[in-house]
Amino acid sequence: MALNISYFAWVRERMGTAEEVVDLPADITDLTALLAWLAARDARGALAFAEPHRIRAAIDGVMAGAGAPLGEAREIALFPPVTGG
Amino acid sequence: MIRVAVQAAAIDVGAELDRHDAGGHGASASFIGRVRGDGGLTELFLEHHPVLTQAGLRDLAQVAAERWQLAALTLIHRVGAMAPGDTIVLVLASSPHRSEALAACEFLIDRLKTEVMLWKRETFEDGRAAWVEARVGDAVRAERWS
Prior knowledge:
heterodimer, A: alpha+beta, Ubiquitin-like (UB roll), five-stranded mixed sheet, 5 strands, B: alpha+beta, Aldehyde Oxidoreductase, domain 3, four-stranded mixed sheet, four-stranded antiparallel sheet, 4 helices, 35% strand
């Protein structure tokens, strides 16, 4: 499954890119598995996703809870807890 | 009635307040967040999402407009590089009644801090730069409104 992933703030810096298209293995069906897969993929992923509890996500434009199913998601944003205001 | 903006340009607080003055509303409450120069901070950078930051602000404004009796609502967040003293965020809520205006204003800034896709990076005079960590106290304040 082709999935667009965008990264923000220190997640973006650690990944070294703002976005990418990944070909997701069929057994990656929720956020928990996605973060573990990215962490295991390379050194940048390991650095960005070493602490998955510090990562928030939006799936197709909607904020998603920890471990949310990916379903037929086309776009996922991964980022740290927000700090605006 | 609802005006929401995410902008790199400076926020013209006076002009925004004039809009509320012109409406003849009984009460207007405001919150203005500014960049603090604590600890030798030289720049505050606000990163945002090209679509979802604006959408998040609009959703919050909609929730406030449904929850309180509001005649006008302005929610503007600046993004990009800012200097100490610059206005980061402006919330203006007007209503026939002060309690509604004040509550909506406080709700919006509390929830904005924990729900809208914005991230602060601080740069200091010694060249050090760091992303601001989310604070537990902010989450506690935001929870009060649920």
